[in-house]
Amino acid sequence: MRGVATLAETSGGSGADVVDSFKDVAPGLGRLIVAHCYGDIFCRPALDPKVRELGAISALAAQGTVAAEKPLGVHIDAALNLGATPEEIVETLFNIIPYAGYPLIEKALLIAHDRISLFDDKQVDGSPSDHRTLDMCSG
Amino acid sequence: MRGVATLAETSGGSGADVVDSFKDVAPGLGRLIVAHCYGDIFCRPALDPKVRELGAISALAAQGTVAAEKPLGVHIDAALNLGATPEEIVETLFNIIPYAGYPLIEKALLIAHDRISLFDDKQVDGSPSDHRTLDMCSG
Amino acid sequence: MRGVATLAETSGGSGADVVDSFKDVAPGLGRLIVAHCYGDIFCRPALDPKVRELGAISALAAQGTVAAEKPLGVHIDAALNLGATPEEIVETLFNIIPYAGYPLIEKALLIAHDRISLFDDKQVDGSPSDHRTLDMCSG
Amino acid sequence: MRGVATLAETSGGSGADVVDSFKDVAPGLGRLIVAHCYGDIFCRPALDPKVRELGAISALAAQGTVAAEKPLGVHIDAALNLGATPEEIVETLFNIIPYAGYPLIEKALLIAHDRISLFDDKQVDGSPSDHRTLDMCSG
Amino acid sequence: MRGVATLAETSGGSGADVVDSFKDVAPGLGRLIVAHCYGDIFCRPALDPKVRELGAISALAAQGTVAAEKPLGVHIDAALNLGATPEEIVETLFNIIPYAGYPLIEKALLIAHDRISLFDDKQVDGSPSDHRTLDMCSG
Amino acid sequence: MRGVATLAETSGGSGADVVDSFKDVAPGLGRLIVAHCYGDIFCRPALDPKVRELGAISALAAQGTVAAEKPLGVHIDAALNLGATPEEIVETLFNIIPYAGYPLIEKALLIAHDRISLFDDKQVDGSPSDHRTLDMCSG
Question: Which part of the chain is the Carboxymuconolactone decarboxylase-like domain (chains A, B, C, D, E, F) (predicted)?
Answer without folding.
Answer: 27-113
